[in-house]
Amino acid sequence: MIDRLDPPVRHRAYGSGGINRVESPLRANSVPYISIALGSLLPFLLIADVMPLAPPLGFILFLGWRLMRPGLMPLWVGVPLGALDDLFSGQPFGSGILLYSLTMIALEIVETRFPWRGFWQDWFTAGLGILLYIIAAMTISGATLSAHLFIAAIPQILLAILLYPLIARVIAWLDRFRLSRTRRIG
Length: 186
Prior knowledge:
By secondary structure, the protein is mainly α. Helix content is about 65%, strand content about 5%. It has seven helices and two strands. It has helices spanning about 1-5, 25-45, 55-70, 80-90, 95-115, 120-140, 145-180; strands spanning about 20-25, 180-185. It has a two-stranded antiparallel sheet. α2 runs antiparallel to α7 and α6 (about 120-140) crosses α7.
C-alpha cells in the first residue's frame, strides 16, 4: 500500500517526474506531528454539552499515523504528543503521556506479531485502542465509575470508532501531501 501512494523513481516511465523536484524534508517530517497537534486542539474548540460527544481526535490521528506508517514515528514520541494532548483535553497532566506511550508500546508489539495487516485489522486495532483509551481516561480522571458513566460514554466511543475510516482517508491524503514533490531553488 505504501508503494502505491508514492511509487519509486525506477517504476516511473520517464524518470523522476520533474527536473529539480524532490520531497521537502521539512514537510515530510512535520506533517504527521502538526496534524496530531491540530487534532488535539480541535475538541477544545467545540462547545461541550451535558455529555462528552467529541471523540479524542488527537489520539485517533496518532493511532492512524502509527497504523498506516509504522516506522514513521519513534517509540518515544508518545511523551510529547501525550503532553500536548494533556494540556488541552482537561485530563490530569500525565494521563495522556502514559496512555500515548502505552499505546505506542502496544502497537509496536502488534506490529512485530502481525506485520502484514489489512484495513479491517487496522480498524479493529484502532477501535480496540480507542475503547481502551476512553475507558482508561475515565479511570485516570478520578471520576466515580458507574454504569451511568459508561452509558454516557457509549456515543463518544461509537462515534470515535466509526470516524476512524474517515480519519484514515484524511491521513492518506496528508501522507500524499507530505511526500509530494516540490521545486527546490538553488
